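This section describes the prediction task in plain terms. A model, or a person checking by hand, is given the sequence of a single protein chain and must write out its three-dimensional structure as a string of tokens. No templates, partner chains or ligands are provided. The sample shown here is typical of the held-out split.
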Amino acid sequence: GVLHEDLRLLLDTALPPKRKKVVLGVGDAKMGAAVLEELGVQCQTGGVVAELMRGIRLHFPALVRGLTAQSAAKAQLGLGHSYSRAKVKFNVHRVDNMIIQSISLLDQLDKDINTFSMRVRSWYGYHFPELIKIVPENSMYCRVAKFIGNRRELSEESLEGLEEIVMDSAKAQAILEASRSSMGMDISPLDLINIESFSRRVISLSEYRKGLQEYLRSKMSQVAPSLSALIGEVVGARLISHAGSLTNLAKYPASTVQILGAEKALFRALKTRGNTPKYGLIFHSTFIGRAAAKNKGRISRYLANKCTIASRIDCFSEVPTSVFGDKLREQVEERLAFYETGEPPRKNLEVMKEAVVEASEVVAEVKRRQEKKERKRKKREKRRLEALAAAAEEAAENSVVETEENDVGAKKKKKKKKQQQPEESEAEPEPEENGVEEEEEEEEPLPKKKRKLVVEPEQEEEEEKKKKKKKKKKAVAQD
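The expected answer:
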């Protein structure tokens, strides 16, 4: 119901002074109601306005000067991309798709590990049936079965390793005594290798599940810290997954969040006119388990209300913090105590005022840290760019020096060649070792450069003779 500031400014500047008599055509009834409430301008909505809007959109390039159909298509494409980006939310730290996938994988892993552990029990139970009663826990049973192997080889030396696995000396001693008097059948080495291999796979799956749970916890603390602080990471992730996204969960009312996950029971109750369910996925929270039977419905309704508030805070806050989630959790604790002891809880207004003060301090601290990190990152980037520039300058200098050296070397080689060429031309054939001189070979025509080198001294002698003759003639003429 609040009109956007840009739209209000546009209407203030576009409308004439007597704007109350003007009737605007608005395609959306809600926007028309908001304009009427804020500015007192009558707005008309309906089929005529929609047709006018469609005509303006169709002939928009012809109505606006300098706008072509190509530029309008580009603008529409950019608007579509920005809208899709806003829907997808390109913020890496606020992506809830990973939470949905990880909680689905976690549930699937729970089912698979349970099924595989039962398979290990039934398989290894032929050889050592008494172990099931001593070690009832699935993952520990697989570890013990892998460690023992053939029960006939179990001895006092293996007692220490058993104690490390089961974390109980009495249990380890009971396993050792049961292995000595077991009624299980003997097992071949090949069957034992298969059982040990399968047990190893189940153990690795359970370890991966622990790592996935830690990843989910860290992701929930980034995306929805208030919701995870209030109801827990796993239940909060299930709520987000069932709703489809954190934004969808924030749009739901508290009554929907309360029975989220119990849709089948709800529709069955509506069809048979029975009692509707009191809780859905939030039943897995610890608060409902701690409440008395007569108070479970009340506390589930109160908890759903607080979950809705927490999800909206996480969805629409710029810097999400767990302060509001902690305060909402305290309120649920106080409500539980009120149902049990009758002690009145604090008012919501007081709690939220405290939460706002604490959250502002936490947000300021987080922004300060982010600015510090950004400054460090810029410094590192600047140093890296300076190092790259210095390396580029050194490479350029080295290349210039190498080219100069190559030029100098080439010039020296040319001079040496020029010096060697006249020496080779003047050199005479040397006699052979036996004293017989070779026949003179026919002289080959010299190249142009060599000819110039050979001809130059003869030309200089002729020019000197001509100069001397001229001087003598001048002296005779003067006499």
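For orientation: The chain has 21 helices and two strands.
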